[in-house]
Amino acid sequence: MPRVPLIGRLSPREYVALVLGFSFIAFETILHIVVACLPTPIIKWFYHRSRSLFHRLSRTPPHRRKAKTRSEEQKASDRILNARDFEDLCKIHGYTHEEHVVLTKDGYLLGLHRLPSKMGEKERSPGSSTGKPVVYLHHGLLMNSEVWVCLTDTARSLPFVLVEQGYDVWLGNNRGNKYSKKSIHHGPNSTKFWDFSIDDFAWHDIPDSIQYVLDLTKASALSYIGFSQGTAQAFAALSIHPQLNKKINVFIALAPALSPAGLAATIVDSLMKASPTLMFLFFGRRAILSSAAMWQSIIYPPIFTKVIDQSLLWLFDWHSTNITNDQKIAAYAHLYSFASVKSVVHWFQIMRNSAFQMYDDDVISPVIRTSVSSYRPARFPTRNIVTPVVLLYGDRDSLVDIDIMLTQLPTHTVARRLRGYEHLDILWGNNVDKDVLPHVVDTLRMYRENSDENPITDDA
């Protein structure tokens, strides 16, 4: 299509999408305000009507559905769906957790969760060293630590499996999310609070959280397991903090993210790559999709699950067939957590430039076009990473191009393919206990055996 001259880099088709996008955001904002003003009985009435409509349109008649004996997974799904927080989720599975708070060097308070003891095992001295090898887990974009423990089967939950293997398990949280929505400098209603990107996670959140864990456990090093953006944050942190490489004995990257090619939704992909800062016009400069939690609370869970499934299919071409419907209903309720618009803008900058770069504050004029650029944003020097890196990636994950990724990582990187897996499958897939977790456990054990410190024993 021809470009609109002197206005920008967008085509007429993209301008139409832009107008429609603004219209949708405006409509959603108005609807959000209206719903917020409605009394609770009316909201409950709409909730029950949506449930009735869903049952009427579903294939199984209501009377037959009620007559069926509920499976153990359905019962577990209901319990997890209604769990309020990380503590409730741990109690469902029979574990006791600890809560810790890290103060980053730039003033954010981050919530850490710890699983120090096996199921039914009494913790001897909370908040102290257990003498066990330490594993640190970090979530992905728009998530929090709950995504690791919201599974319907304890045997498929990585943190619980690692606890039973004798590890001291820690789970981190990014600034701004459900467990880290506080700073000593700015309140969460301030735009300054949300002025952070992947750079800040790399400079502060990851190294400060890891140092806190090492100081408390008195361990010399720990193992890092990241999911999606949690892997990108570690790639970035290890590349700019040489000393951090000595504190992580192995880095296991689940569904690794470095420089994705883009989205499956071509119109959204081209629009945001053409001008990533359009995200600020759509969503402002604070938290992105901040109304998601409200919609989740008033929409019947199976309907909410269908909405998420269709969104993932449209945006990423993920079909999520490896995740059972009961697991989706349980996990999707814990999927979303607050994140800054700026961090999402950062991802579109990375996609646009096909480079794992730091946040670009420079606004390049759309009129000036030269064959040679006089400016290039600083890139994270990921080839400098010394820590052993193991990638576990799904061969159906649209966000992973393993060949390109390996060219940006050190030569000692090991890549393991998970056949038939997409992105979220690696967290919640029906067979992760057979296809994913054994790889993680074997990798951790192998790198622990290479160290004489903190060996795993049967009574650990």
Automatic annotation (TrEMBL):
Bilayer disposition of the protein: Single-pass membrane protein
GO molecular function: hydrolase activity, acting on ester bonds
Family, per entry: Belongs to the AB hydrolase superfamily. Lipase family.
GO biological process assignments: lipid catabolic process
Every Partial AB-hydrolase lipase domain range: 87-150
Keyword Nucleus: no
One term under GO cellular component: membrane
Keywords annotated in UniProt: Hydrolase, Lipid degradation, Lipid metabolism, Membrane, Transmembrane, Transmembrane helix
Matches recorded under InterPro entries: AB_hydrolase_fold, AB_hydrolase_lipase, Lipase_euk
Lineage: superkingdom: Eukaryota
Organism: Collybia nuda
Subcellular location: Membrane
One Pfam family hit: Abhydro_lipase
Membrane-spanning segments: 15-47, 248-268
Protein known as: Triacylglycerol lipase
Active site (catalytic residues): S228 (nucleophile), D397 (charge relay system), H423 (charge relay system)
